[in-house]
């Protein structure tokens, strides 16, 4: 059903499709085989260890062998602060276009960037494509540092008084101590029974004022 929001979203999408979009590469290569892990790289991609990327590497490169878990907060845009080039050089992609910004990786955005919300995505992507590295990013002034589990559950109990038992089973991942949240999430992922022992988990704190990532784990 039409609404001002729907109309606006569709108008913006049409503008993008008409002016910027080009067909994106498919997961099956020209040999008909599904691209997996580092082989899922699409386009004129060369690993940084082999040589530095050149400006001529103009083709979009996707890889599935590493992925990022970040907060759903609209201020936290990993494609921007991690310097990914966005598909089809969309307006943000043009802003970010330098020789070092040529890579795109899967991004899982969940509240708080908490691993409990992302774990099924991580396990599923690993089963499908092979994930070598998980990059966790939490950020200062995260909404989940301003609420605790009890407060969120109290809100839900008020709205859904009949659903108390279900509400009790939920963990929102409220953050008591930023930084420790990254340590806890890295441990959670590493100890998960469906995560392979060789998967590397890194944790970074994103400073929304300075724009820098600080390595925590
Ligand atoms: Zn957040």
Automatic annotation (TrEMBL):
User: Which co-factors does it depend on?
Assistant: Zn(2+)
Q: Which UniProt keywords apply?
A: Metal-binding, Zinc
Question: Where is Zn(2+) annotated to bind?
Answer: 71, 73, 139, 142
Q: Which SMART domains match?
A: Pro_CA
Recorded hits in Gene3D superfamilies, A to Z, give: Carbonic anhydrase
UniProt remark on cofactor binding: Binds 1 zinc ion per subunit.
Coiled coil: which residue ranges? none
InterPro entries, per this entry?
Carbonic_anhydrase, Carbonic_anhydrase_sf
- Give GO terms: molecular function aspect only: carbonate dehydratase activity; zinc ion binding
What does the similarity note say?
Belongs to the beta-class carbonic anhydrase family.
PANTHER family for the chain? CARBON DISULFIDE HYDROLASE, CARBONIC ANHYDRASE
Protein name per UniProt: Carbonic anhydrase
The major lineage groups are: Eukaryota, Fungi, Dikarya, Ascomycota, Pezizomycotina
């Amino acid at each position: 059903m039409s609404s001002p929001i729907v109309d606006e979203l569709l108008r913006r999408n049409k503008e993008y499709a008409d002016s910027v979009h080009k067909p994106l590469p498919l997961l099956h290569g020209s040999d008909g085989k599904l691209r997996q892990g580092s082989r899922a790289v699409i386009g004129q991609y060369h690993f940084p260890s082999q040589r530095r990327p050149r400006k001529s590497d103009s083709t979009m490169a996707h890889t599935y062998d590493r992925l990022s878990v970040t907060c759903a907060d609209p201020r936290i845009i990993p494609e921007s602060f991690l310097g990914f080039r966005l598909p089809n050089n969309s307006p943000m992609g043009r802003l970010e276009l330098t020789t070092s910004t040529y890579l795109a990786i899967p991004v899982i955005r969940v509240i708080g960037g908490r691993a409990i919300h992302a774990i099924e995505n991580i396990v599923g992507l690993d089963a499908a494509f092979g994930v070598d590295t998980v990059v966790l990013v939490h950020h200062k002034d995260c909404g989940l540092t301003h609420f605790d589990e009890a407060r969120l559950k109290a809100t839900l109990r008020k709205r859904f008084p009949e659903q108390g038992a279900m509400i009790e089973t939920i963990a929102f991942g409220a953050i008591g101590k930023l930084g420790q949240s990254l340590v806890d999430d890295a441990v959670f992922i590493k100890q998960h029974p469906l995560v392979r022992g060789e998967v590397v988990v890194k944790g970074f704190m994103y400073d929304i004022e300075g724009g820098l990532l600080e390595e925590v784990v």
